[in-house]
Design brief:
The complex is a heterodimer of chains A (210) and B (233). Chain A is mainly alpha-helical and 210 residues long. Chain A is built from 9 helices and no strands. Chain A has a single domain, classed as DhaL domain (Serine Threonine Protein Phosphatase 5, Tetratricopeptide repeat). Chain A is 69% helix and 0% strand. In chain A, helix 6 packs parallel to helix 8. In chain B, helix 2 crosses helix 3 and helix 7 packs antiparallel against helix 9. In chain B, the strands form 2 sheets. Chain B has a 4-stranded parallel beta sheet with strand order 2-1-3-4, sandwiched between helices. Chain B folds into 2 domains: 122 residues, Rossmann fold (3-Layer(aba) Sandwich), CATH 3.40.50; 81 residues, HPr-like (Histidine-containing Protein, Chain: A, 2-Layer Sandwich), CATH 3.30.1340. The chains are: A mainly alpha (210), B alpha/beta (233).
């Protein structure tokens, strides 16, 4: 199975923009329940801005694409999601130092992204945040890499694990971010950041044909 | 005159950041203090671009270093992201109470404090204010206990508004300029926060003490500042 290069990165970002547009209302609803109700709008604004910059920037590597996403999200996505996703993509860009990612490369990018989110947000698994989606995703990709799978298989495993991780936030009581102000009342709602993380990783896997 | 260390104030609100620049500038007129509040399009939030522009703007205007201060939550995350992108060791973030830390950092920068001194001043604002002068009293405890060498003067605060922010900053700058430990009513006179926490109003009786090699000169200078009424009388 082919490694994942610039073409994959470009299709992923375009698909991600389409996905956050499609799920804008859904993310808004989730965030209205336990946050400040702007996550869907912020993600939509951020990825629309990424699309606008993509053609002019002429990125030539996976790392270039991830860095463009990072800087654009940091500038355009308000609230905590901008810096968190921005840092994840920025660290991922630094980890993507080859022309094409194999399974180990995918695992390294996801691990670096997770590290960035944790460094910035100081959250742990179980705090009802993006970390609940990213942690199992990075582990799943690493597992595929260790057992000799392809890059696309690593992304598929990561996407499935992120989806399960996002669903696991439903019963949790938030311990980080705006939702933590609600205490017990945050239980019974999915974390919007974990949901958008699962959506982004799903599009990454789909773009790889997995 | 340009001062070595610049400050960038990051707030969710453009007005809050601008207002704090106004307050800090009164105490530190020569320090480059820049506001980075609100989003690009004027909403409540923080903007990576505005923070980055403020930081790089201060550096290209000749600042040796930039200390970034934030109000809360995602403002801190945004500022951290800017620092991570810039990877410049001349820029540091201090996570401390916004107003208090900014005032302390501005006064330290105005006094010519280097990067470490400004960062330290901002950082100690946490304990300085939480203890309501206790921290200042504690640091002054050493020299004050040595009654043998202390020189003390009692006087009345003549300016009508008392030891509010601007006069407190003036006194703190003067006190910090000597090789001496100066206290006012038992708190460290070199700490603008400790002075402000005394809540001294016009007409208050105060006691200024100084110890150390330049105790005499420091005492005379601080007393002269106070007796001048800070230009208010």
């Amino acid at each position: 199975m082919a490694d994942l290069g610039i073409d994959w990165a470009l299709s992923w970002v375009r698909a991600a923009a389409a996905t956050v547009t499609e799920h804008r209302e859904h993310l808004l609803d989730l965030d209205r329940a336990i946050g400040d109700g702007d996550h869907g709008e912020n993600m939509y604004r951020g990825f629309t801005a990424v699309l606008g910059k993509l053609d002019a920037a002429e990125p030539s590597t996976v790392g270039d694409v991830l860095k463009l996403v990072a800087t654009t999200l940091m500038s355009t996505v308000g609230g905590a999601a901008g810096p968190l996703y921005g840092t994840a993509f920025l660290r991922g860009a630094k980890a993507a130092d080859t022309d094409a990612l194999d399974a180990a490369g995918v695992a390294a990018v996801l691990a670096a992204g997770l590290e960035g989110i944790v460094a910035r947000g100081k959250a742990e698994v179980g705090d009802k945040t993006m970390v609940d989606a990213w942690t199992p995703a990075a582990a799943a990709a690493q597992h595929v890499a260790d057992s000799g799978g392809s890059a696309a298989e690593a992304l598929r495993a990561a996407a499935d694990a992120a989806r399960a991780g996002a669903e696991s936030t439903d019963p949790l009581v938030a311990r980080k971010g705006r939702a933590s102000y609600l205490g017990e009342r945050s239980a019974g709602h999915r974390d919007p950041g974990a949901e958008s993380s699962a959506l982004l990783l799903e599009t990454a896997a789909s773009a790889a044909g997995a | 005159m340009s001062v070595g260390t610049a400050l960038v104030l990051v707030s969710h609100s453009a007005q809050l950041a601008a207002g704090l620049v106004e307050v800090a500038a009164q105490m530190a007129p020569d320090v480059d203090i820049r506001a980075a509040g609100g989003t690009d399009d004027g909403r409540v939030g923080t903007s990576f671009d505005l923070v980055e522009q403020a930081v790089t703007g201060a550096l290209s205007a000749g600042a040796d270093a930039v200390v970034v201060l934030t109000d809360l939550g995602s403002a801190t995350l945004t500022a951290e992201s800017v620092l991570e992108m810039l990877e410049d060791e001349r820029v540091r973030l201090v996570d401390a109470p916004f107003v208090e830390a900014t005032v302390a950092a501005a006064v330290a920068a105005q006094g010519g404090g280097d990067f470490d001194a400004v960062v330290a001043a901002a950082g100690t604002a946490v304990t300085g204010f939480a203890g309501s002068g206790e921290a200042g009293g504690a640091t002054a405890g050493g020299p004050a206990a040595d009654d043998g060498g202390a020189r003390t003067r009692s006087l009345t605060l003549v300016n009508p508004l008392g030891l509010h922010a601007r006069p407190a900053a003036t006194v703190a700058r003067t006190a910090a300029g000597f090789d001496a430990g100066v206290t006012i009513n038992g708190v460290d006179a070199a700490s603008v926060l400790a002075l402000m926490s005394l809540g001294l109003t016009g007409g208050a009786e105060i006691e200024v003490s100084a110890t150390g090699p330049q105790a005499e000169e420091a005492l005379a200078a601080v007393v002269a500042e106070i007796e001048s009424g800070f230009g208010e009388t």
